[in-house]
Amino acid sequence: MNVYLAEVIGTMILVLLGDGVVANVLLNRSKGQNSGWIVITTGWGLAVAVAVYAVGWASGAHINPAVTVGLASIGLFPWAQVPGYIVAQLIGAFIGAVIVWLAYYAHWPETDDPGLKLAVFSTGPAIRNYALNVITEAVGTFMLLLGVLAILDKNNNLSSGFGPLLVGFLVWSIGLSLGGPTGYAINPARDLGPRIAHAILPIPGKGDSDWGYAWVPVVGPIIGGIIGALVYAAFWPA
Predict the structure, then answer these.
(1) Is the pLDDT at 163 greater than 80, yes or no?
(2) What is the CATH number of the domain that holds 129?
(3) Average pLDDT, stretch 78-92?
(4) Buried b (16+ CB within 10 A) or exposed e, 43-63
(5) Which helix (H) or strand (E) holds 184?
(6) Where are the beta strands (DSSP E) in the chain?
(7) Number of other residues whose CB lies within 10 A of the CB of residue 176
(8) Per-residue pLDDT tens over the stretch 206-230
(9) Which residues contact 84 (CB under 8 A, 6 or more apart)?
(10) Are 222 and 69 in contact (CB under 8 A)?
(11) Angle between the 65-73 and 130-151 helix axes, to the nearest 10 degrees?
């Protein structure tokens, strides 16, 4: 499989299952309505694991520009492929969001709150403070990159099938521990691609797409991803 196509498919799976669980919990008259944060974080963790299992063999399953840039910053991925990976991830995230919109098509007009509709697609802060929101996203993505690299480090001697599952557990843990302030985008494509879909799709009563905040889940994860990768490279044994 072409590596860019794999990134499209992997990120599509991530957003389809991830935004899908948010829709299930937030939208009116869904079977999972009001089932809570534990369900959302579990759904996202499993979404990551499934996506990595699906395309990890083909592209490494970055499915996240912060991962791609972080790996490139420590020489584990060629910079020449970074733009193509990021474009593929954005396309996959957009497609995943559109499929979620279609799957929950009957529930959009049943849901009055435009904030809940946007939350299905993209993250937003519990308390809007851009500097602190960026720090929160950077911390979460720092833990993502450091955790992924540490889990998959050759010194752990993992059986080949366990890596993606443990990465899913890592994302679950990040959501439970660090997701409260901003909804833990920790992935520019996961936020920006669906936000574009929200802006374009005909969703009744959807409100605006909060473009004033949209830079936070892009900048914060890139900063955190680079720092996490650099810390791993500096302190873990070669």
Answers:
(1) yes
(2) 1.20.1080.10
(3) 98
(4) bbbbbbbbbbbbbbebbbbbb
(5) none
(6) none
(7) 16
(8) 999 999 999 999 999 999 999 999 9
(9) 3, 4
(10) yes
(11) 70
Are 49 and 167 in contact, with CB atoms under 8 Å apart?
yes
CB contact at 8 A, 183 and 124: yes
For the cut 90, the answer to whether the pLDDT of residue 172 exceeds it is yes
Residue 199 amino acid letter: A
pTM for the model stands at 0.97
Among all chains, which residue has been given the structure tokens 């399953």? Answer: 61
Please check whether residue 195 is in contact with residue 103, taking contact to mean a CB–CB distance below 8 angstroms. no
In this structure, are residues 172 and 42 in contact, taking their beta carbons and an 8 Å threshold?
yes
pLDDT, the chain, mean = 97
- Split into its structural domains, the chain has a count of 1
Quote the domain boundaries for residue 79: 3-235
Tell me if 48 sits within 8 A of 16, measured CB to CB: no
Q: For residues 85 and 54, what is the distance between their CA atoms, to the nearest angstrom?
A: 16
Nearest to 171 by CA among 44, 1, 2: 44
User: Which two three-digit tokens encode residue 131?
Assistant: 């500097």
Instruction: Supply 87's token pair.
Output: 């474009």
